[in-house]
Amino acid sequence: MHRDPFDVWYPGYLDHIGNFRHSLSFFTETALYRYATPHFYTTDEFPAAKRDLRTEVFYASPWKGGWWRLGDAVRYMVEASKSVLDTAAKYRENLLYNRYLAGRDVIAKFATEGPFAYVIPNAQHDASSAALLVEKLSLSGIEISQATKPFDANGTTYPAGSWIVLMDQPYAGLVKDLFDIQKYPTLSQRPYDVTGWTLPLQMGVEALPSPRQSPAKHARI
User: Cis peptide leading into 121, omega within 30 of 0?
Assistant: First the structure.
């Protein structure tokens, strides 16, 4: 089975977070845990759509069945990993340049449309959680500034020491995804597992979007 779809809307998945860092990522599993038990497979045990052993773009060498053991799964993944490394080495210039273009486009997007920044006031109900939130953003490659003097944004005056996350930076999409008030769409299908992750709400931290560019003059000092 290849390209089996499921809900990866949650940005905490290892194969999803790379999208916001403009990196290629994908999720793979080779069989299930119970398949560690050796078994001789025939095509009638395959998924119905795969029994004709038709060659496909994402299934170039259909397996015809036979013995499947834990060692086969390990070798399969080792070869797949080598293939990824080989492809990345061959096309490294294209991959790196496209990553640059993606970051450039994100900067341009948030330079002209809001939110232009998120303000995390230094006066919080739980100061340690606010600091932890800032640390988590920093570990994800997000640039965060701290105001050196009071400033006005959203009709409110914030004290010096408040954190400012300017959105004209390459990984700003991650900030928006984590900080926006999440509204799950109306679907007939139930979500896969995780349905909520608005990080400031989960951590009890106040983080306010700025629809105007006013905080910028106090940031990156």
Answer: no
For residue 158, give the nearest of 147, 166, 167, 168 by alpha carbon: 147
DSSP secondary structure string for all residues of 20-78: HTT--------S-GGGGS-EEE-GGGS-GGGTT---BTTBSS----EEE-HHHHHHHHH
The predicted pLDDT at position 217 comes to 52
Compute and round to an integer the Cα radius of gyration of the chain. 23
CB 158 within 8 A of CB 164: no
Contact 96, 24 (CB under 8 A): no
State the pTM of this model.
0.80
Q: How far apart are CA 145 and CA 171, in angstroms?
A: 15
Render pLDDT for 112-170 as a digit per residue (tens, 0 to 9). 988 999 999 999 999 999 999 999 999 999 999 999 999 988 888 999 999 999 999 99
Buried residues in 103-129 as b, exposed as e (16+ CB within 10 A): beebeeebeeeebbbbbbbeebeeeee
pLDDT for the residue numbered 221: 43
Q: For residues 192 and 6, what is the distance between their CA atoms, to the nearest angstrom?
A: 7
